[in-house]
Structures are given as C-alpha cells and as structure tokens.
Amino acid sequence: MVKLTAAQRQDIFAHALEGRPNEVCGLLGGREGRVHKVYRTRNKANSPVRYEIEPQDLIRCHLELEANDMELVGIYHSHVFSEAYPSNTDVRLAYYPDALYLLVSLMDDGNPILRAFRILKAQPTDERGEIAEVPIEVEAAEL
C-alpha cells in the first residue's frame, strides 16, 4: 500500500493536467510507503506517449531524498490518452524494483484517475515483467 494526502494527490493531478498534451513525470519521497514529498520533474522526452525524467532533476531529487533520510517510494507519470495501467514501454523501462509506479490517466481530464503498481522483472533489462496493482490510501489531513 502507498499512503499520500489528498493535497499530494491533487498536486500530481495538477502537474499532469498542466503538462498536456505531453506526459509528465515525478518522484515520490517518503518512508515505509508513506509519501512525504512530491517531486515534480521535467520530461526530457517532451512526448505525449513517453516519459524520461530529466537527468539533472533525477540527481537533484535523489540528493534531497538522501539528505532528508527518505527513500524513493514511487515514480509517477501521466498517460494522456490511455488508462492508468503500465504500458509495455513502462514495464521495459521500470529500472527501480523497490519503487512503486503510479500512473495518472487523463482520458477524462475532468476526472483524472491515479493507480499504483509494482513492476517486478527477473532482470532489469527484461522486456516483460509481472505487474501487480497496489492499493492507494488517500488521507485527508496533511502529514
């Protein structure tokens, strides 16, 4: 399970909507499955069907996570035209086995949908993996 506040979920939705027509991406820092901070990052791919976190943003976020004794809880990105489910490309590029992958669907931009998944692969270079949905608990109060 991953836990985040309603404000954090809204921040992820706002980021996804602001980035249209392209996908957006970001990192989630925290401890023990609880998100403490949403890190918006730039999509180097600048694409409506693909994301790649800008390397400088990735380094900055990892340094801040380490400095604040947090772990990488998850990686999020948006799907502008499809459901919130990992694509074949998402699975192929899932290089962080301990992180959850959160997807936002903007198929109905008036009602974005957020889902979380664990993607397990035998080897980081595998093209296919096992996808398991993980529950999201949204808390009303700030942490």
Sketch the major β-sheet.
Answer: 6 strands, mixed
User: What pattern of helices and strands is seen along the backbone?
Assistant: EHEEHEHEEEE
Q: How do the strands of the widest beta sheet line up side by side?
A: 3-2-4-5-6-7
Supply Rg: 14 Å
Share of β-strand residues: 35-45%
Secondary-structure-derived class: alpha/beta
Instruction: Just name the CATH architecture.
Output: 3-Layer(aba) Sandwich
Straight-line N-to-C gap: 17 Å
Count of domain modules:
1
What would you say this structure looks like, in words?
There is one protein chain. This protein has 143 residues and is of the alpha/beta class. It has a single domain, classed as Cytidine Deaminase, domain 2, CATH 3.40.140.10. The protein has helices at residues 6-19, 55-67, 88-92; strands spanning 2-5, 25-31, 34-41, 71-79, 100-105, 113-120, 130-134, 136-139. It has a 6-stranded mixed β-sheet, sandwiched between helices. Strands 1-8 form a two-stranded parallel ribbon. It is globular. The model has no long low-confidence stretch (mean pLDDT 94).
Quickly list its features.
36% strand; 143 residues; Cytidine Deaminase, domain 2; alpha/beta
